[in-house]
Design brief:
The structure is a single chain. With 301 residues, the protein is an alpha/beta fold. The chain folds into two domains: 152 residues, Toll/interleukin-1 receptor homology (TIR) domain (Rossmann fold, 3-Layer(aba) Sandwich), CATH 3.40.50.10140; 125 residues. Helix content is 37%, strand content 22%. The protein contains nine helices and eleven strands. It has a six-stranded antiparallel β-sheet with strand order 6-7-8-9-10-11, covered by helices on one side. Strands 2-1-3-4-5 form a five-stranded parallel β-sheet, with helices on both faces. Helix 3 runs parallel beside helix 5 and helix 8 crosses helix 9. It is globular, with a radius of gyration of 21 Å. The chain starts with 7 loop residues before the first strand and ends with a helix.
Length: 301
């Protein structure tokens, strides 16, 4: 649970199969005065909220000194644990230092693009939960002594000095580059989330390239629905979202607009009032995943 200031010393991230070990570590940490974010302790606070958004806020640096991912084969294959990990990695790159404290649960081979081979990690097999908790407590004590207070990333960015700049796009602004990056991110998110669909009776394949991303849903060996993101041939510097049985129909156009507040390009998707909001790449990718889920829920009614 949080302390009186509403902050955490550590947040644990893990797959469900590792819960027994992790919970023992959590309770031992609490006994040593370490303030831990642990999902089961936050049931009331999270009740009624968007759990994905809330967890991204926690693992993405809101009032947390360190994130401890318990890495395993299930973790790497799981959509939700990896979403937490990527949120933490984003903050780690911005903050630097030892924001992420990895613990490897088994003999899984961690891909170098996921965890730099130079990063020191611990193996759970070498430590009982109580021993690991004592190491966590010592690490937290060092962080407290060095003044590593939990802060939102936005606060860190705001502290950086800089002149006032025009609230217009710079001359080197590259909308096609923003769209290409968004397409890459959509492919990553859809591929990761789609691994969960066999539990719901659907086979799901995702193919991504520099020119398109396509998700195909099949049920009982029969292709039933498609989602495609492709470069538009009719609207310059834009993407088309296509949905439905093959061939999928155009659902909306994705264009890039300058977000003056963030000083970066943002995505606008749809027509009319639906297109009024600006999306970051991750938000756009999640909106497309929601369309996949909407189809499955409608199909099962």
């Amino acid at each position: 649970m949080t302390d009186s200031s509403g902050t955490y010393d550590v947040a644990v991230s893990f797959s469900g199969n590792q819960r027994d070990y992790v919970e023992q570590v959590v309770r031992a940490c609490e006994g040593l005065g370490v303030v831990v974010f642990y999902d089961r302790d936050e049931t009331v606070r999270l009740w009624g909220k968007n759990v994905i958004t809330e967890l991204r806020r926690v693992y993405g640096g809101v009032a947390v000194r360190h994130v401890i991912p318990f890495l395993s084969e299930d973790y790497i294959a799981g959509a939700y644990p990896m979403d937490e990990f990527y949120a933490a990695m984003t903050v780690s790159v911005r903050r630097g230092g030892d924001y992420i404290l990895p613990v490897v649960m088994d003999d899984v081979e961690i891909p170098p693009e996921l965890l730099n081979p130079a990063i020191i990690y611990l193996r759970a097999a070498d430590h009982s939960p109580e021993e690991l908790a004592r190491l966590v407590a010592r690490k937290v004590a060092l962080s407290r002594a060095e003044g590593h207070e939990p802060r939102e990333v936005a606060d860190v960015v705001a502290e950086a000095p800089g002149p006032r700049l025009p609230r217009v796009a710079p001359v080197h602004f590259d909308p096609r580059g923003v769209l290409a990056d968004a397409m890459t991110r959509v492919g990553q998110v859809l591929e990761r989330h789609s691994r969960l669909l066999p539990d719901y009776g659907f086979a799901c394949g995702v193919q991504a390239s520099e020119t398109s991303v396509q998700l195909v849903l099949a049920e009982n060996g029969r292709e039933v629905w498609n989602l495609a993101l492709v470069w538009s041939r009719t609207v310059p510097d834009s993407l088309e979202v296509r949905l439905g049985p093959w061939p999928p129909a155009v659902d909306g156009i994705v264009t890039v607009h300058w977000d003056a507040g963030r000083r970066k390009g943002a995505l606008r998707y749809g027509d009319g009032p639906v297109a009024s909001a600006l999306f970051a790449a991750d938000e756009f990718a999640e909106s497309l995943w929601h369309k996949v889920v909407d189809f499955i829920e409608e199909d099962r009614r």
